[in-house]
Amino acid sequence: MPESQQATPPVTGSFQLRVRYVECDPMGVVHHSSYLPWMEMGRTELLREAGQNYAQLEADGVFLVVTRVEVKYRRPIKYDDLVEIRTKVEKSSKVKLHHSYEIVLVERGGETSEQVCAIATTELACVGEDGRPRALPGWLGA
């Protein structure tokens, strides 16, 4: 889709998921490495709401690489919990996107909840096929 026809991506979004066994350690607690794919899913859903996806960006020669991640774990999430990943675009520049996340426990064992279990931030840089920095598409950047 030509850049002039791109929808402006939303700045906030969320989705829910049920924790799978594969995402947990032997104690049934979500392993720290499982949070990164959840955050990627949040970013992907924001793009999808704008009618775009990573495959199309890459076909257009636009690659978004993670240059920084920070996660603060507050409470454990366990197998079969229902969680909500809340994603927000905090700011963008000509080349970088900054997101924040809240991973919220929504349900455990049939009991509803609203506990923030982790907060996180990411920084993504836009690069071309050669791996060198390039400007974000206008509809995506500042």
Strand residues, percent: 35-45%
Radius of gyration: 16 Å
> What is the residue-averaged pLDDT?
92
Amount of helix: 10-25%
Largest sheet: 5 strands, antiparallel
Uncertain regions spanning at least 5 consecutive residues: 1-5
Q: Which word captures the global form?
A: elongated
What CATH first level would be assigned?
A: Alpha Beta
The string of secondary-structure elements, in order, is: EHHEEEE
Number of helices: 2
Distance between the termini: 19 Å
Count the E strands.
Answer: 5
What is the CATH architecture descriptor? Roll
How many domain units? 1
Looking at CATH, which topology would you report? Thiol Ester Dehydrase, Chain A
Provide the spatial order of strands within the biggest beta sheet: 1-3-4-5-2
SS content category = mainly beta
CATH superfamily: Hotdog Thioesterase
How would you describe the overall organization of this protein?
- The protein has 142 residues and is mainly beta.
- The protein has one domain (10-127): Thiol Ester Dehydrase, Chain A.
- The protein is built from two helices and five strands.
- A five-stranded antiparallel β-sheet has the order 1-3-4-5-2.
- A hairpin with a 2-residue loop joins strand 4 (96-108) and strand 5.
- It is elongated and about 45 Å long.
- The chain starts with 11 loop residues before the first strand and ends in a 15-residue tail after the last strand.
- Mean pLDDT is 92; it is low at 1-5.
